[in-house]
Write a structure and sequence with these properties.
CATH topology: TIM Barrel
Strand order of the largest sheet: 1-2-3-4-5-6-7-8
Helix content: 25-40%
Strand content: 15-25%
CATH class: Alpha Beta
Distance between the termini: 11 Å
Oligomer: single chain
Bound molecules: ligand LARABZUK
Radius of gyration: 15 Å
Largest sheet: 8 strands, parallel, barrel
Amino acid sequence: MTFIKMCGLRDEATVDLAVDLGVDAVGFVLADSPRRVSAAQAAKLRSRVTERTVAVGVYVKMSLDDIVATARAADLDHVQVHDLRSADDVRLLHDAGLTVIRAVNNGAGASVSEDLGADLLLVDGAVAGAGVTWDWQDRSAVPRGRWILAGGLTPENVARAVETSGAWGVDVSSGIESGRGIKSPELMTAFANAVRKADVR
Ligand SMILES: O=C(O)c1ccccc1NCC(=O)[C@H](O)[C@H](O)COP(=O)(O)O
């Protein structure tokens, strides 16, 4: 079964729906963004997440100290970081008890073949949360093993994206929104259904 992560959730009803849809992970953006939530808001949202769903703090351009502090304040034990620079960065987050998803923005300089020791890789479009796709056939952008595909996924393209790229999981934000930062229950449902339908093919 393809791992599904829905990112940029900002209100309790949306988190409840994601949990009801059986998604595997939800992401709360704690970095500067139209989708940003405070650590206190993330803690509230996190409390709605049941055991089978992973709650992930999402970060870019924040210090490692701030990442650890906000993840702790929000009771998050998974972090997705878009600008990890070194294995030392990852080690520091691991030492703080965090599971680390290293997000690589395609074409932005970082390489998926460089092993920083993160627990999971997420390969995104050029700009995080912008709904931009990338060339899923580009084997140099595709990591070995388990990895999550992100960037411009929608209910319409997700089945083809998984088939083309061979990704283990998918992550979506813009493609389940009716406007920037506003999640659509219909699109969330359609996205989860599209992935599940592709899984049984
Ligand atoms: O969503 C944001 O605004 C954001 C800001 C800073 C760091 C990460 C951010 N989002 C990450 C994601 O939503 C997803 O992991 C990924 O970029 C997919 O986004 P989309 O192309 O919109 O589906």
